[in-house]
Amino acid sequence: MNKALNVLQQEVDKRRTFAIISHPDAGKTTLTEKLLLFGGAIRLAGSVKARKASKHATSDWMEIEKQRGISVTSSVMQFDYKGHRINILDTPGHQDFSEDTYRTLTAADSAVMLIDVAKGVEPQTIKLFQVCAKRGIPIFTFINKLDREGRSPFELMEELENVLGIRSVPMNWPIGMGRELSGVYDRMKNQVELFQGDDHSTIQVKKVDGYEDKVIGEIAGEYLHDQLCQDLELLDVAGDPFDYDKVMRGELTPVFFGSAVNNFGVQTFLENFLELAPKPEPRRSTAGLVEPTDEKFSGYVFKIQANMNPAHRDRIAFLRIVSGKFERGMTVKHVRAGKDIKLAQPQQFLAQDRDIVNEAYPGDIIGLFDPGIFRIGDSLSEKSEIVFDELPTFSPEIFAKVSIKNALKSKQFQKGIDQLTEEGMIQVFRTVSFDDILLGVVGQLQFEVFEYRMKGEYGVDVQLQRMPYQFARWIVMDKVDPSKFRINSVLVKDKKENYVVLFENEYAMRTAMEKLPEAKFLETAP
Ligand code: G4P
């Protein structure tokens, strides 16, 4: 093996790129911050939180982001820990997430699903889980806030199975909960992690001789030890055994219990996760599977963030590196545009600081300065014409009729809609009967950003009127009859002239499906 290839292999082996998926308030900000601290990124302490609380003084976040104190589009954080290089893809924790959130998940090789011990599986977790499950990536679960009274671990495991359809294998098990929490038992390493002191401020790790070891009872008390033994006996008999292949296929989720705010169970989780989580995975392309260790550099754009710097109105295209080594200043093929471009000003993202990056490897995310030449899904590659598989689109769930306030601006209006659709910011439809323009999104925030950008970048004031539809289905049949879609639904066309039906509720959708058995109803464009 030549030296360059050897280095590439080592760099790939040490990387882990993942996203944390959760419902707002489960503790994602807190957990992210603790992970960054383990990586020695001390200067970041408080910065993740500060960004969320909108306390940051940097001027280059979108106005809207500052006003609302949320991260409009996801960013990337990188840190090193015990020989690993870790990339965390941040997904907005606010309820107003967008299609970008979903697309960001396509750049992750695994996901960490964070669940509040008292609340269990919540709506936003379900949505994000489903996107990960479709890709079949490994999903690791961290059940948080163990220092509070919560639901029983068995009940939560049942919920994972019933609501998400995934089996689980607890890697550790709580000893008590809430006020009684005295520690966790590590099932894999046969050791206990114990809280000590009245304020639980110190953590002691002790090797034991199985969960029945009397030492546990001496420290945690007989009652909690008995409970632990009963639970673990039951798990040993009736629970799923750990199966690495099933974990890798996303059929079994390893579960860890802990408390992010107390830093309890976080380090064990991180270490186990790094051991088990996959390194950068190959991606499918026109040239077959592209392996990370292919020497030629390649990658694809999964997100474009506009207006990070309102003064310059520049955009950043986020690129996931798939293969080879990236070097600043290198020339690559922009396959769709059919031209060579020089990657001169790449940036890496570390919380809100941005550094110029000189080299990067598969699994890393780099931000490319974009004067308007990139689209979501674009492939870049060195000396070849690789095109990666198209990124998935997602079925819109919220709709609004859009109109222009000043008819004289209709040309800019059209241009704005075309460009923002192309960028993947919104999906656009026209009603068959009245030629109204409807926008479809997955999160309310996308409408706000749309309005903001139409005004800021195209000088157009738009009016948005929410429509009652909740589901979009692309309809495939010989002859589409608009009169069939009048009750609680509307027939529209997408920008490629495909027929789509928007339904107000599930009942209307089911009725239409029953009435038209010959038609196919697809969640996304065919
Ligand atoms: P998010 O990014 O998922 O939205 O959640 P975030 O980390 O902001 O956490 C939401 C709230 O839950 C915060 O409280 C945070 O301190 C708390 N929290 C996180 N992890 C734990 C935990 O392990 N145990 C307990 N008891 N609480 C936890 P807050 O009151 O909203 O904010 P703060 O004033 O405490 O910062």
UniProtKB/TrEMBL annotation:
Protein name: Peptide chain release factor 3
SUPFAM superfamilies: EF-G C-terminal domain-like, P-loop containing nucleoside triphosphate hydrolases, Translation proteins
Keyword Cytoplasm: yes
Domain of life (superkingdom): Bacteria
Alphabetical list of Pfam families matching this protein: EF-G_D2, GTP_EFTU, RF3_C
Xref: CDD domains: RF3, RF3_II
Function: Increases the formation of ribosomal termination complexes and stimulates activities of RF-1 and RF-2. It binds guanine nucleotides and has strong preference for UGA stop codons. It may interact directly with the ribosome. The stimulation of RF-1 and RF-2 is significantly reduced by GTP and GDP, but not by GMP.
NCBIfam families registered for this protein in UniProt: prfC, PRK00741.1, small_GTP
HAMAP family tied to this protein: Rel_fac_3
Upper lineage: Bacteria, Bacillati, Bacillota, Bacilli, Bacillales
Annotated compartments: Cytoplasm
Family recorded in the similarity comment: Belongs to the TRAFAC class translation factor GTPase superfamily. Classic translation factor GTPase family. PrfC subfamily.
Residues reported to bind GTP: 22-29, 90-94, 144-147
UniProt keyword annotations, A-Z: Cytoplasm, GTP-binding, Nucleotide-binding, Protein biosynthesis
Encoding gene (name): prfC
Keyword Nucleotide-binding applies: yes
Record domain Tr-type G: where: 13-281
